Amino acid sequence: MRSKFYLFLITICFAACSTHQPALQYKTNKPIGIDIVLQNAISEGLKHDNITTELALEVSKMDKFFIGKCIICQSVHKALKEHKGYSKENKMRGQASNLKLVKAQGDVGKTAMKKAVMSYLDKHFKEANLTIKQIEQVQKKLMEASKKGQQLVTIYTFCPSCKGVKGACEAN
Known about the structure:
- It contains eight helices and no strands.
- The protein is mainly α.
- Helix 2 (34-48) runs parallel beside helix 4 (71-82), helix 2 (34-48) crosses helix 6 (106-127) and helix 3 packs antiparallel against helix 4.
- The chain is globular.
- It starts with a helix and ends in an 8-residue tail after the last helix.
């Protein structure tokens, strides 16, 4: 009887430790910073997809894809740079194929980066238990930041992070 009880406790402990952790919660009465939302979205996405630290760092080194003074680019870049991921490339999933394509740069890399950012942000909106009002507020702030980012464009012709948040940071 005692061994069954211990087996039951071990099973419960194992189940509790291995369950999916819910996305970060935001307080409903506090303004939400887009930098925090973006960093959380990208960080959670990278973790969920088992992205290796090496791949995240390679993507973060794509200078052409990040405008230094753009809050959207800064947030995405920071999440990629600070990612402490996994070491087994064969365990990666989800947006891993898109993140690998970013290294190709050009249109292929831009599209891949855009898809990864968009996917991670959409997933975060669904899982973070944000109210509709909060999501609208964050999206409005992201659009405003994207427009500011467009003004910062110099040698860049496209900002995939801004496009990934459905922004308008494209110079042509």
